[in-house]
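Render this sequence as a predicted structure.
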Amino acid sequence: MNQYSFYRCQPILTEYCPPRETGAKERGSRRKPDTTATGLTASMLLVTGGAGFIGSNVVASLNEAGRADIAVNDILGSDGKWRNLAGRQLAEFVPPADLLRWLDGRKLDAVVHLGAISSTTATDADLVIDTNFRLSLRLFEWCAATRTPFIYASSAATYGDRAAGFSDDWSLAALKRLKPMNLYGWSKHLFDLAVVERVARKDKLPPQWAGLKFFNVFGPNESHKGEMMSLVAKRFDEAKAGKRIQLFKSHRAGIADGEQKRDFIYVDDAVAVVRWLLETPSVSGIFNVGTGVARSFRDLMLALFAALGREPAIDYIDMPVSIRDNYQYFTQAEIGNLRRAGFNADFTSLEEGVKRYVTCYLDRADRHR
């Protein structure tokens, strides 16, 4: 078992699912000491976007490892995102408007920067650049000045139309060949370029810096994302109700209906990479975070029906004309950099990840971790 993942469902008679209370200790992890009693400034770990999908799972993992000295920076809004943190213990919650002032004079163990406008259909370019690029630069520079490790979310959306492949080569020349297809991907790409340019110039850097190009992550705590949820979450209620679910037909020769492929990665494994980096401060770079194996949307839905114990019922519908020209038919992460850096944990199979997601979360009254 991957020591950086938190409790997994075990197929023993009935499914065993993670406990929902906080404070469970994880093997190989230690609680950070509280130094406030000695008059020293107590250290904390900051997770931006900590109420979001991946961010709240990172917070859950850290809590379950015994860490409660976590500050979360996020906007909770009115879409129920607060429920992602309802069972968690935090040291502080920092609104985005207060973040830079809050950081002034502070000592942190690390910054895990997952906050972003992540919708691939976002159109307010000024807001996206302010949030995803300019704020990220300020955090990077703060970490460089204060000697604080900095781990941030990039995205597989930086690869664009796949013309340049999905190579994990993060040299400046390789990054400059990428052509993102949407505003979100472009904003993440701009920041990757800015970081690597600073590395090339030998500017002052954080003692550890790591960019994570997440591929298709799925799992609990994504219900607030609406149309940006994974297809498992979107189609679960229909499949459980015995309805037929719909997938897009293929409009490309040689690819069957439903055989468009993605590198689907269960959120436990994405969190495991973040946790490993936090515990391996000698590693820096930009890394793809996927399984290295592409699976089809049909495979994904077959796994959903299997997890529910139902016969597959899938219809194929025409893809909207508006997205056909730019539709991505294949993604698959190259993960050689991650393996060479020393991350050697196995990834959860598609079938196991979907089963765990369905059994432990989607098929329960409370779907949150």
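Summary. Residues 10-219+264-292+332-348 form a domain with the Rossmann fold fold (CATH 3.40.50.720). Confidence is low (pLDDT under 50) at residues 1-15, 20-41.
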